[in-house]
């Protein structure tokens, strides 16, 4: 891949990875409630999940959904339902210190990886990345570059959101502020469905 294309791809990956979206809202909430170390599996899951989604789109899943729109609609419905479930779970979370809210926990690697497959922002980014940066003359090499660049850029970019949450922990140590924060983050996560429903 030419250097100028690589730079453009890395910039695209950074902007799309660090901009607000469902996964980043969940990471900030998890960082605030559980700390960075307990949120790290969720960070890794997002990177693994998005990279696998990008690979799937590059291998032709986007064309499959265009051929059978019902599959795309079904995925949107499943994704919306799961996103609302996660928003509800976040809104009800009340754990910020070890030992409190023992049943509360951040998403696992597998849960956050699978979420990328129903995350509307992830699909939009993956489809755009493949459409713009995949070279028809060298599809395998360009897809490998796409996946590698996104994996390398996505991991630190989404970690920033978990860090934002951790930075808020002192402020959110008061139960009332934590409750308001979690309800607001749950509502914000639910609001990320708006682009998908238009």
Automatic annotation (TrEMBL):
Single Gene Ontology MF annotation: amino acid transmembrane transporter activity
Compartment(s): Cell membrane
A single BP term in Gene Ontology: cysteine export across plasma membrane
Main localization (coarse): membrane
Pfam families: LysE
UniProt keywords, alphabetically: Cell membrane, Membrane, Transmembrane, Transmembrane helix
One GO location term (cellular component): plasma membrane
Transmembrane intervals: 6-31, 43-68, 74-92, 113-134, 140-168, 180-197
Membrane topology: Multi-pass membrane protein
Protein name: Cysteine/O-acetylserine efflux protein
Annotated source species: Achromobacter agilis
């Amino acid at each position: 891949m030419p250097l100028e294309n690589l730079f453009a791809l890395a910039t695209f990956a950074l902007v799309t990875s660090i901009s607000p979206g469902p996964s980043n809202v969940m990471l900030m909430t998890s960082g605030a409630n559980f700390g960075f170390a307990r949120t790290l599996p969720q960070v890794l899951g997002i990177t693994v999940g998005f990279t696998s989604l990008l690979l799937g789109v590059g291998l032709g899943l986007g064309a499959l959904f265009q051929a059978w729109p019902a599959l795309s609609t079904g995925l949107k419905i499943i994704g919306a339902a799961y996103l609302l479930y996660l928003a509800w779970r976040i809104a009800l979370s009340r754990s910020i210190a070890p030992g409190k809210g023992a049943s509360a926990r951040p998403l696992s690697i597998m849960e956050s990886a699978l979420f990328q497959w129903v995350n509307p922002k992830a699909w939009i980014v993956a489809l755009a990345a493949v459409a713009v940066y995949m070279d028809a003359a060298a599809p395998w090499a360009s897809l490998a570059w796409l996946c590698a660049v996104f994996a390398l850029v996505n991991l630190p970019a989404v970690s920033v959101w978990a860090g934002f949450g951790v930075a808020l922990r002192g402020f959110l140590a008061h139960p009332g502020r934590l409750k308001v924060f979690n309800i607001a983050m749950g509502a914000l996560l639910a609001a990320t469905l708006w682009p998908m429903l238009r």
